[in-house]
Design the sequence.
């Protein structure tokens, strides 16, 4: 569908290639046990996962800073569970979470297969709202760093997706026009609407069971990309 048009493929990282929820759960299992925090992991994740998405939206919209995101998502989770825990322990957990998250390397099914398929035909890049200090580690530890020519993160750009500035920076670094570019990601707002507003083509990797929309086609498995590229 885009084979005769696109030369450059931009991927989101978390929730698109790198299995954030699985790796995050394994990280919490490790650090909660290590710090003897006696909360049930499943109960914790049931509250934490949607809260984390809410706080990431606030962070993406510039309404909170990184430190607030990292502290409040834990604080409010424990408060919602009625679990008493000191601020000191929350800060320790917050630091250890970042420290250990990259040590888990689960990717979505067929990630390597689709990257192997695309690499000979297109230039591949990453555009991520994640923190610069850990996104490179995720890519390297998962052995997929070498697939990508340009890795653009929100701290480098000074803004977060869907802000057009981060897409402008990505296009500039990749030396490509929007018409020859496609963005593939999980977030309707940040990845799809942000890319389409800048004139990029898009594919929505629907891992959150979003409703159908008119911005672009949706895929449920990464291997479906082969039908488009």
Sequence:
């Amino acid at each position: 569908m885009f084979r005769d048009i696109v030369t450059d493929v931009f991927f989101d990282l978390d929730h698109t290639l790198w299995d954030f929820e699985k790796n995050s759960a394994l990280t919490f299992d490790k650090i909660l046990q290590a710090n003897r925090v006696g909360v049930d992991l499943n109960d914790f994740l049931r509250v934490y996962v949607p809260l984390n998405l809410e706080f990431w939206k606030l962070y993406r919209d510039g309404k909170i800073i990184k430190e607030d995101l990292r502290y409040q998502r834990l604080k409010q989770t424990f408060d919602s569970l009625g679990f008493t825990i000191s601020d000191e322990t929350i800060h320790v957990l917050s630091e250890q979470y970042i420290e250990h998250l990259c040590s888990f390397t689960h990717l979505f099914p067929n990630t390597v297969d689709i990257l192997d398929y695309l690499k000979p035909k297109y230039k591949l890049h990453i555009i991520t709202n994640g923190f610069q200090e850990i996104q490179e580690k995720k890519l390297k530890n998962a052995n997929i760093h070498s697939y990508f020519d340009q890795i653009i993160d929100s701290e480098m750009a000074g803004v977060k997706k869907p802000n057009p500035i981060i897409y402008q920076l990505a296009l500039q670094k990749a030396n490509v026009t929007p018409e020859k570019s496609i963005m593939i990601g999980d977030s309707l707002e940040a990845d799809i609407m942000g890319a389409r507003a800048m004139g990029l083509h898009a594919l929505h990797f629907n891992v959150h069971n979003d409703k159908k929309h008119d911005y672009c086609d949706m895929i449920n498995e990464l291997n479906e990309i082969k039908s488009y590229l």
